[in-house]
Amino acid sequence: MKNTIKTIISGCVLATSVSLSTAQAGEDFIFAQAMTTDHIFHSASEKFIDNLKARQSAYSPEYHPGGDLGDWTSQFEQAMQGVIPMTITYGASEFDPRLDLTWLGYVVDDWESARKAYGPNGPMLNVYNEIMADNDLVVLGLIPTGFGSITMRKGVDKVPTNFPEDAAGIKMRVVPTPLAIERFANWGFSAVPMPFAELYTALQLGTVDGRAFGPAVEIWQMRDVLQSYILTRDYFEHAFWVVNKDWWEDLPEAERNKMRAAADETLAWVWTEAERIDNGYLQQVRDYGIDVVELTDAQRNKAKELLYANEWPYMEKVVGSEIMDMMRKIAGIN
Known about the structure:
alpha/beta, nine-stranded mixed beta sheet, 9 strands
């Protein structure tokens, strides 16, 4: 009952905000993202606003950072509905299970290949827009946050680098999606799906032995409970910069072109900035004293083959052979 009332109140507040914006601001539009102002999402948003203003656009973003219009899942849904015309958010597979494609293992494993696949004008943009069109969204670009790897908590001396041999008996927290469970079961771990909000306490109390899907910035944030960081680089974390399809197509062509140009300029900047930030946090993790372990080529190749043989066919059942053929071409898999 409380949650229902809270949802109704939040909806009324947002509706009032949209109504006032429309009445008072003319060509203003809501641009929102749910992360804090020290996140790359915020830097990208501010850069876009400046770039759009420099092009003397008649449209002005009414910017909402920090989740004041809902968490990233809520903002994804509101963008689908057209309540929020523009947002930077992660793929919410609650609305389309094909969006679990963002977690797919070993599409790329270094920044150079990531930029070619996911960066400006990269082929992944076409893959995602094919999916997003069915959800009334257009992807302007992909915002990178870095490579995810596995980490072990303090008090656990195991450092798994050979899969599945080293993984036996290790309780590994994974993101609560079927694909994540599939991956770490294939690698021999006891996969424990868990929301991010519960993760720090679980590591602190020993409910889990380690965590997967951890980019360097999150390892730094949880550094006081972590002992080792094993650079599997098994997935590349990225978010979607999306606009509502109907809103986008209804824009005057000249204004849509200005927004596209401002977005493209922002994306070129953000890809260089994100790599710098990711490398900086990894160095801070090392300097703090966490044991950072690189896989050997043989270990990484074995880890890859397990996923290509098991996880990729599993995902093909979700997204279909056409999309997975595109993914294999992008990853260079015959």
